[in-house]
Amino acid sequence: MSSDVPSSPVARHPLISTEMTYLLPMGVFLAFTWAGGHWPDLFAASYVLKTMVVALLVVAFYRRYTRICWNGAWLGVMVGVLVVVQWVGMEKLLGNYPKMSQPEVFDPFQHFASPWTCWTFIIIRWAGASLLVPVMEETFWRDYLWRTIAAPNDFQLAKVGEWDLKAFIIVAIAFGAGVHFEWITAIVCGLIYGGLLLYTRSLGACIIAHGVTNFLLGAYVLIWRDWKFW
User: Would you say 21 and 65 are in contact if contact means Cβ atoms under 8 Å apart?
Assistant: First the structure.
């Protein structure tokens, strides 16, 4: 995603290393997620705030990230549909297995008194999960972390989607157990996204797959009011 157009002052600041442009959005995202889980009354506000702040960081650092290749987009859509079936199906099949500090179920229709406020939050959450999270997470997990494992001295020496067994396994486990309380289901999801990356060598295909999964999962939640999936 590099370009000859001058980058923003934040993106080109000498104190912000290339590594930090990947780490900072994820760190901020996880910090707000922790706060929303630790103080349930702040969940809605923290979610909206983290969406706005992370979006600003991703935009600010955009030109510092690896150029995204969008080949295999059609396969990304297919994998995204497959994963939402895998995600919902596995969670229902596995039942109440030990989870990673499962947060309280948040029903926006019970939380907000005003329908307008409720639907505003739902739209922000759905859009953030479908558009922002896939870019932020795939850029971190299957670009930066994957390549860092493949080339520890300088991640930029490794190519996007370069085969590395350690990266394939470690990224899937970190993606699943590190940021998702549905850790078994999420690890399988990470393996599927990793396989897509290896097959297409396209970060864009992974972003599309992740976005389709999150969009369809949001639709499932809203249709069936099964809030534990959100």
Answer: yes
Tokens of 128: 């953030």
Tens-digit pLDDT profile for residues 9-57 = 444 555 789 999 999 999 999 999 999 989 999 999 999 999 999 999 9
Cβ proximity of 136 and 26 under 8 Å: yes
What residues contact 122, with CB distance under 8 A and at least 6 apart?
Answer: 108, 222
Q: d(Cα 2, Cα 143) in Å, to the nearest integer? A: 14
| DSSP letter for each residue of the chain | ---SSPPPTTTT-TTS-HHHHHHHHHHHHHHHHHHHHHSGGGHHHHHHHHHHHHHHHHHHHGGGSPPPP-TTHHHHHHHHHHHHHHHHHHHHHH-S---SSPPPP--HHHH-SSHHHHHHHHHHHHHIIIIIHHHHHHHIIIIIIHHHHHSTT-GGGSPTT---HHHHHHHHHHHHHHH-SSHHHHHHHHHHHHHHHHHH--HHHHHHHHHHHHHHHHHHHHHHT-GGG-
Distances from the Cα of 179 to the Cα of 1, 67, 87, 164, angstroms: 26, 25, 15, 22
Q: What is the pTM of this model?
A: 0.92
pLDDT by residue (tens digit) across 44-71? Answer: 999 999 999 999 999 999 999 999 999 9
